[in-house]
């Protein structure tokens, strides 16, 4: 690669770490003081409030322990910066081939027009097209998705030269034409309008076919459509592999005469009697099918809604793999998961700014970020179980000799044989080879296993974001998604893949702790729910659980509480959030802990007891028009009779009853001076009520379809009233 070494990336330490470490140490002293207060001031046996006190002590022990765990990702974050211009000085012929995997599973929840926009954005990378192969895995085996990809293969001949001529960003046509207000600043207006019309005509044809639910009979004469029959369903269909664009074929060129990337449609075989292992099974099928067709040494996998927003992303990632001095042990490069439909004030807490700007760089300091299932470049060999060795040399020319390989028809048939239901039987696929099975977060457990085999990962977040996706636009979708994430991460913690067990002696203690930040999401539900309910009920009954304002112990509670939240606010604002966005994020963490995480820990326990089996819920990428308008206006969306909403409503109403009832009782019985022993509980209950204000609005004021259904309101009100009355008896 050259006689003189030039680093393709550099690493910089975060600033202000000494000040933060001093602050963290002072917080630890405050936490220990709170524990000491609880241990030395507990009510005696038989005294009122003893069991409530012991429960609060247990909750605070957990909160303190979890806070210590979270310090692993804030102790010393590092940031990576690449030099793609140095990579561009190298001979393009020496750069490796790249296989890109895009996964979809439901043409209703994941509209085909959204899927092909992601595919087109990856086909248009600023990288030699003959070195790119793009694979779409359609787990539904839908002819509608295949039709959309067939349309995209024709549109690509116009779109790719347009992108390169005008250096278009982003290169997802859906995102580009929806965001660009003044085309004259970059493109010739007539060309821009012509291209926009071509895209809209294609989109209209696709949407019409999807609404119709079938393709016209005349289309079945085209290559590939004959693979489908009337008996096929999403759960029962044969393996399908169709090479729509063969990059090896000299006739596969765009309108400017340049080569096109290889484009492949794949639907692995599905039969009702065989377990298909969800997304992990789909990814493993892609690994095998692509090894037969292109076999590139580098792979990128994306969710179908995560379009490429930066045409240089491949080159940025290769800067790590191809660095001659520090790239040999890098197994995968992880980009952040960022959403471009987040509202200004981040209604559902999906900006993930603190995650991407603080926590993942914190992971990187200890050996690398986790694999999060999308926006990740891997060495193919590590996905196939390769262990790190200092003597290992990557074959960067792997896959290049495929230009003289067998015909497309032969490759399709050979690839089909690798994605049947029975291919993996009695093999190590899903265990030692490929993505891991039997876990809702197959990505995290796979990345951890790779790191435990000696490989490192790196995290990169360039100024122009690499990938942008679609965040849930209703509260129910958001809570279900976090339920799956918390459940999967907790399953890992309780399994043989627990970072403290699997990673012992293989990865640093700091990285083991960092994984547990997410692995222990689910258990946070129990102490949080306790803290939201019990102090308020004790307020209603006049039982004090905290020191008086005049007590020296009050300072410990005040310092820890104020310090944690003020630091969190400053950190959030520095990462780009708004003040209202930070407040919304606090609300969402309470709602997630009391619902998503509670359901996650319950589901995990039921699975351990073999009472239930693992499922996988696809997060819908679309919502109805009225719900979308409310989302854009930062209005919470309820509208369904979910049991999660009953919990949310009950907690909100219970705290409102306790605040009003407790204050009334204190003022009547003891006057204003009686408030001092209960000041912290009054403040805590008041803050809970304040953060639930949108919940009260949805319960009693709003009349739109996004408010609470009557059944949820009735159950929430009734449950909160019953608990309050029983407490006062």
From TrEMBL:
Subcellular location: Golgi apparatus membrane
GO cellular component: Golgi membrane
Main subcellular location: Golgi
One example of a Gene Ontology biological process annotation: cell wall organization
Binding site for UDP-alpha-D-glucose: 110, 139
Active site positions: 139, 443
SUPFAM superfamilies given in the database record: Nucleotide-diphospho-sugar transferases (SSF53448)
Keyword Phosphoprotein attributed: no
Chain ranges passing through the membrane: 18-39, 51-69, 645-666, 678-696, 708-728
Domain of life of the native organism: Eukaryota
Alphabetized UniProt keyword annotations: Cell wall biogenesis/degradation, Glycosyltransferase, Membrane, Transferase, Transmembrane, Transmembrane helix
Topology term for the membrane: Multi-pass membrane protein
InterPro entries: Cellulose_synth, Nucleotide-diphossugar_trans
Binding-site list for Mn(2+): 279, 303
Keyword Ligase: no
GO terms for MF: cellulose synthase (UDP-forming) activity
Family per similarity comment: Belongs to the glycosyltransferase 2 family. Plant cellulose synthase-like E subfamily.
Annotated function: Thought to be a Golgi-localized beta-glycan synthase that polymerize the backbones of noncellulosic polysaccharides (hemicelluloses) of plant cell wall.
Protein name per the record: Cellulose synthase-like protein E6
Native source organism of the sequence: Phoenix dactylifera
